[in-house]
Write a structure and sequence with these properties.
By secondary structure, the protein is an alpha+beta fold. About 15% of the residues lie in helices and about 45% in strands. It has an 18-stranded antiparallel sheet that branches. Strands 4-5-3-2-1-31 form a six-stranded mixed sheet. It has a five-stranded antiparallel sheet with strand order 23-24-25-26-30, with no helix packed on it.
Length: about 900
């Protein structure tokens, strides 16, 4: 009876989630080369716009890559105030576009003057590049039912896309922002990443995604500029050829480097040539007054007799335990020494007298919104779809964006009777006693008086820095001019522009005591970093801004479309299998007989590719005598699998007939519940149930991995709380789990089924971390397991082996206390952080010394163990092999 109930429950869960995945209140428009799906009827105008943009840029992108991927699906998703997009080529050919553009510093990091246009260019370039196949590759994909896509292992996955987004307008794309392209490369010359290093993207390097995206794109652009776009397209074509020896039908196999065959030089020569070309750049920097190694300084502001810096600092601990130091640092303006460091993780910060205001993202379920905090009082004063804010003498103004109407509204929190409406996106703003300054997505600056009357408008296509600032009657802004970023201010009273310096490279600046202070790179240390430079202002009065960029090369035109039936479209796409993979395995029994298993994996997914249904028919055949051709059909089995992944939940289930084996696992994340600007709480719920301890058929009869919720025995229900916060200005993470687990689900709430797990991770500084772990069962508290340790970084040197396939990064010493198998003791181990084939591991060697005598407990027949181990952290005692002494 219980087994029948489980099967019915499993069937009900799968049916419910399939229904949810196929039914929505959305719509679909069928254009010539794409189906555009929108979330609800309010977005139909946006869907039409997206379809027209795609059809207008489609051929231009294909011409850049050299491959037409065919018809695709584009899905609009409103996730709130988060900017993103992604491409799926393995299952349904789908591009997902979020409706929120970038703002503030992220708008400087990813500068796109029109969100949908350049996001489509970026993502469709992925589609053209990653789906690139020759005819043999298409044939293999057809007969095997598994897409054979050579470019998924390409070294230029993001190189093609960032190059494409930067190819149509000097005012868009990361390669047209010298702070994250030519300037970044130039100041990285003393610690320039190898090509394999930037692919690995070590977590302790402050450059983070800049390594994988921007350095890759820089090299790709060098190849295109030096050898021509046709040569780069030829390289993509050559590296997309199917190269499976037994399928090349006698064709001559060569091991020639594809770089050498296309560009005439080996890869290492080309990469060196690119690095050497960067030495020709020339920047005029001021005096470095404050240096932060391995750090990004996101903002600099004048704060009475101090300078305030919003910064993010990385270090070995960023890799060990996943924490980055974020905060607002104050330095005095005479000796430039740190006076205060306020821990704070914020998108934007403003200082008004003694008050600090911070704008932070906050997620609940599938939506992200921004919260504006008055930090001094731990108080949220505004929340919603906020792009930026300004404050003057306690009066706060916010800019709100509606992704449906594509309009922004600026209003005061203390007086919402009046507001200013702008058709477009405001990515930054500031407020002074008399004026409001707005920086728009398309690089214009609008100046209002405090009654929302437009006083001036600076129409200029050139890319701008991340912020616009007001000082008295001056509007401070920076402007990209070729390889330089030049600081300016606009005098509202006389309508003149003033250039403050020449040949500078900066991300932000301020005027303090009539001197220029700005943020730029410093080349020191293993990774470089950011610093604050001081420079005398050299005013150049201008009646207009020089060297305005030409208009974008993109011409958006209207294209025909048909309004479709969204549910019918979804069902039709779901019923098309995305894999039909024939598989074979065998098992040899003790009597030498063989069991052959023949099966074919059919996978069906929705257009978002976040819901999968797997049907795998299985035929078992026995061969009692391996030397004879006597086969016996043992029987037929049917595997059914299901996976649903959401932003805050996931569920996977599988069942096999007729054995009635099954497995189900689910996770739910609730939060964040923000207690302060420094502390958030997340609640987690997990369910795991399986028919037997050894059940693992999900990984055998399905190509899609399932959810892995916490489990101890056959049936497990778990509840956890996760709280990241700061203590003594240091990042700390608390995790607490209550786990109910028993082989008999009717006994889940018995006392011997209740387990607890508590952990705390403390970043003492960027080089040292602490981890404490406790695990115990409610019925046996005396058998508590513990492991507490300190990990010290000794060396930060890097070494690459086997062509960069193995990277040794940080190394150090861990000292801890633990009681493995109930034996209390102390351990010391030397670890080496190792990146191998995309995995980060910590091989170690150490000594465990038992301390049972100190506890007054019977001692084992050894004093200690000399061991080698392997873990995913420098913390914890992980013994692979040991020798007692």
């Amino acid at each position: 009876m219980a087994g029948k109930f489980r099967r019915l429950f499993l069937f009900a869960v799968i049916s419910l989630f399939l229904l949810i995945s196929l039914v929505s209140f959305a719509g679909v428009l069928h254009f010539e080369h794409a189906d555009v799906v929108y979330p609800d009827l309010r977005y139909i105008d946006t869907a039409i716009r997206v379809g027209n943009i795609f059809e207008s840029v489609r051929q231009d992108v294909i011409n850049l890559v050299g491959y037409d991927p065919g018809r695709i699906t584009i899905i609009l998703q409103d996730k709130g105030t988060v900017s993103n997009g992604y491409t799926q080529v393995l299952l349904h050919k789908t591009i997902v576009l979020y409706t929120w553009p970038t703002e503030g510093y992220m708008g400087f990091y990813l500068p796109l003057e029109d969100w949908y246009t350049y996001l489509i260019i970026h993502e469709f370039t992925h589609m053209c590049h990653l789906s690139y196949q020759d005819e043999l590759g298409k044939f293999i994909s057809l007969i095997t039912g598994i897409p054979y896509l050579p470019q998924l292992s390409s070294p230029f996955v993001e190189g093609t896309t960032v190059f494409a987004e930067s190819s149509f307008s000097l005012s868009s794309g990361r390669l047209n922002n010298p702070f994250f392209s030519s300037g970044l490369y130039y100041y990285s010359l003393p610690n320039f990443p190898s090509f394999s290093y930037k692919e690995t993207m070590p977590l302790d390097d402050y450059r983070g995604g800049l390594l994988y995206y921007n350095f890759t794109a820089g090299f790709y652009k060098y190849l295109a500029d030096t050898y021509g776009i046709d040569s780069v397209k030829k390289f993509l074509n050559v590296t997309s050829q199917t190269n499976i020896p037994f399928l090349t039908f006698g064709a001559t196999q060569t091991a020639q480097d594809p770089y050498e065959s296309v560009f005439g030089k080996k890869f290492d020569e080309l990469y060196t040539d690119w690095i050497m070309s960067l030495t020709k750049l020339d920047y005029i920097q001021g005096k470095l007054v404050y240096n932060l190694r391995n750090s990004l300084i996101l903002r600099v502001d004048s704060a009475w007799k101090e300078l305030a810096l919003l910064r993010q600092t990385s270090g070995p601990v960023s890799s060990y335990v996943g924490t980055i130091e974020s905060g607002l640092v104050f330095i005095d303006d005479t000796k430039f020494k740190q006076t205060r460091d306020i821990s704070l993780n914020a998108d934007e910060v403003k200082i008004d007298g003694n008050n600090i205001y911070a704008l932070q993202p906050s997620q609940f379920l599938d939506k992200v919104e921004k919260k504006l905090w008055l930090v001094n009082q731990n108080k949220v004063i505004a929340s919603g779809y906020i792009t930026s804010f300004g404050v003057n003498k306690g009066e706060v103004y916010v800019s709100l964006y509606d992704p449906v109407s594509l309009k922004s509204k600026v209003k005061s929190l203390s007086n919402d009777l009046f507001e200013y409406t702008y058709y477009g996106y405001i990515k930054n703003m500031d407020v002074s006693e008399k004026y409001i300054a707005l920086l728009t997505l398309d690089n214009n600056i609008i100046i209002l008086d405090r009654k929302y009357k437009e006083v001036a408008k600076i129409k200029d296509r050139n890319m701008k820095g991340p912020y616009v600032k007001l000082q008295d009657n001056k509007v401070l802004f920076s402007r990209i001019e070729g390889n330089y970023i030049i600081p300016y201010y606009y005098d509202i009273e006389n309508g003149k522009f003033y250039k403050l310096a020449e040949k500078t490279l900066l991300s932000d600046f301020t005027i303090h005591n009539n001197e220029l202070y700005y943020v730029s790179y410093t080349p020191y240390g293993n990774t470089g970093g950011n610093g604050v430079y001081k420079k005398e202002i050299q005013l150049q009065e201008l009646s207009e801004l020089p060297n305005e960029n030409p208009p974008s090369k993109i011409n958006i035109t209207q294209h025909k479309y048909v309004d479709g039936d969204e549910i019918a479209f979804r069902i039709n796409q779901f019923l098309k299998p995305v894999t039909w993979a024939p598989m074979y395995s065998y098992t040899q029994l003790e009597d030498s007989s063989l069991i052959y298993t023949l099966y074919m994996i059919f996978t069906f997914t929705n257009i978002e590719n976040d819901t999968a249904f797997v049907l795998t028919p299985i035929l078992d055949i026995a061969q009692n005598d391996p030397e004879s051709l006597d086969f016996q059909i043992l029987g037929y089995r049917q595997f059914v699998g299901f996976l649903k992944m959401g932003d805050y939940y996931g569920i996977s289930a599988s069942y096999i007939y007729p054995s009635n084996d099954y497995g189900i696992s689910a996770e739910l994340l609730l939060g964040s519940f923000d207690l302060s600007p420094k502390t958030s709480v997340y609640a987690l719920l997990g369910i795991n149930s399986r028919s037997s301890k050894d059940y693992n058929l999900d990984s055998v009869f399905s190509l899609i991995s399932g959810i892995s919720a916490p489990s101890i025995k056959l049936n497990t229900l778990s509840f956890g709380l996760y709280m990241p916060t700061y203590i003594f200005s240091r990042p700390v993470q608390f995790r607490n789990w209550v786990i109910l687990s028993n082989d008999d689900y009717t006994k889940l709430f018995d006392i011997d089924s209740v387990y607890f797990e508590h952990s705390v991770v403390f970043a003492l500084n960027t080089d040292t971390s602490f981890l404490g772990l406790l695990q115990w069962n409610l019925s046996q508290p005396e058998n508590i397991y513990y492991d507490t340790s300190l990990a010290f970084t000794l060396f930060k040197d890097s070494a690459e082996l086997f062509g960069g396939n193995v990277l040794f990064r940080n190394s150090g010493l861990t000292i801890g206390f633990a009681n493995p198998a109930g034996i209390h003791g102390i351990y010391t181990q030397f670890f080496v952080e190792t990146y191998l084939a995309g995995m980060k591991l910590y091989p170690n060697a150490g000594v465990f010394v038992q301390l049972m005598d100190l506890y007054g407990l019977p001692a084992p027949d050894f004093q200690g163990i000399v061991y080698i181990g392997l873990g995913n952290s420098p913390h914890m005692l992980n013994i692979l092999s040991g020798m007692p002494y």
